[in-house]
Amino acid sequence: MAQGLEVGNRVRLKLTTLDGETEIEGVVLPSALPDHITIKLANGYNVSHPLESIEVLSSTKSEPTATSPSVSDAPQNQDLPTVRIIHTGGTIASKVDYTTGAVTAQFEPSELVEHVPELLKIANLQVHKIGNMFSEDIRPNHWNQIIEATEQAFEEACDGVVVTHGTDTLHITASAIAFAWSGQGGNPPGRIAFVGSQRSSDRASSDAAQNLISAVKWAAEGPQPTGELSDAVVVSMHETSDDGACSIHAATGVRKLHSSRRDAFRPVNTTPLATVRIENKLVELQLEGHYQEARMNIVPRTITTKADRYDETIVIRQMVAGPWLTTREVEDAVGSNVDALVIHGTGLGHLPIENPNDDAPQNIELHQALEQLSLPILIVNQCIHGPVNMNVYSKGRIQQNIGLLGHGITSSPEAAVVKLHFALSHQLDVPTIMGQNLLGEQQQTILN
Ligand code: ASP
């Protein structure tokens, strides 16, 4: 590494480009390409230039972790819609702490805004910090905290809310907040968008800025949710692995389907509600045709100001169907007092419960064990895409006859499990609720 170009240093560089010489200033990041330097500019963007094209004019060591001004210190335009960022943590709030050498550090919500100053052109921003957690650590009590924070934001006249969240369980929490607001006929007063990022904000390849711009755009200017079309809560993430567009997904119809790609979030059995295009300083929100058309054909629900909560004591045991599933797992679960079982079925939602060759007695045992249970047993889809359909094979019919639930589910599997938790939390009749379309989570078309 050339002198003065150590990661974390604040540098001023002279650059020779095809258009002549220019100067840039920023903080040195780990290089995105061999023989290049990567700099985070003051506007939040990262740029890389060949080392041979630069001259170091000045270089100073960064001070460790300066305190950021709160977002209220930033110049705000009160004429813009008000959006509150509810901050829970995740990669979107993480950075490599280059100055101390520590592996990661956490952003404060105000720093997120500082890194993406374009946000202040879209909305008058407020922040509410719930925590700085990675989302694998999120529990139903955090769902309840987020629900309360959204209620409070709307009570205090926010037009929309953005929840920053780790990506691993983002679709689960987003579904939980959707059922909380719209599971029993409600419709939130404004828009709620969840956002995360696959790469931390200070990496050259970060998707954080555009995902956040898109989420704030939806929260500020998106249409009033209908409550019917799974639009009470949406997820804003990269549309492809390139920059330039983010998809606005229905919370109950999206899932993290890749552990590292920037377009990890893909729709499940549906297509996005809208796209936010971000190019050359222009940020444009386009509703997709199917969503626009559906909006015209329904009467939006009455707006409600309170959302439901989740019972934090509910225990749901999940298991995976396949060669290893036996009565033992089911008995262990029941012995430990669970409220419901969820089994991720194979294919259309099948379990190993028949013994056609007369050489797999454990299948018959499993059949009998499941038949005897009185607690709800929900089948979801290991394939992720496609419905749970227990009408196609006789196996599925047998499963329905012994009371297994889930036939017809077309939401994401995680949304179905959250719906079960929601029903249990409010002592709703689980078989009835699982067969209903509460907020648009059930894509009707794919069963046809
Ligand atoms: N494990 C992290 C989380 O879910 C990953 C991320 O944020 O993207 O919080």
Kindly provide the radius of gyration, computed on alpha-carbon positions and rounded to a whole number of angstroms.
25 Å
**Oligomeric nature of the chains:** single chain
CATH architecture of the largest domain: 3-Layer(aba) Sandwich
Share of β-strand residues: 15-25%
Q: Please, what is the average pLDDT?
A: 89
Read across the widest sheet, the strand sequence of neighbours is: 9-6-10-11-12-13-16-17
The secondary-structure class comes to alpha/beta
Question: Could you tell me how far the N terminus lies from the C terminus, measured between alpha carbons in angstroms?
Answer: 61 Å
Low-confidence stretches: 63-69, 98-103
Total beta-strand segments: 20
The count of domains is: 3
Topology pattern, helix = H, strand = E: EEEEEEEEHEHEHEHEEEEEEHEHEHEHHH
CATH class value of the largest domain: Alpha Beta
Could you tell me the CATH topology label of the largest domain.
Rossmann fold
- CA-based shape: globular
- Give me the number of helical elements: 10
Give the % helix. Answer: 10-25%
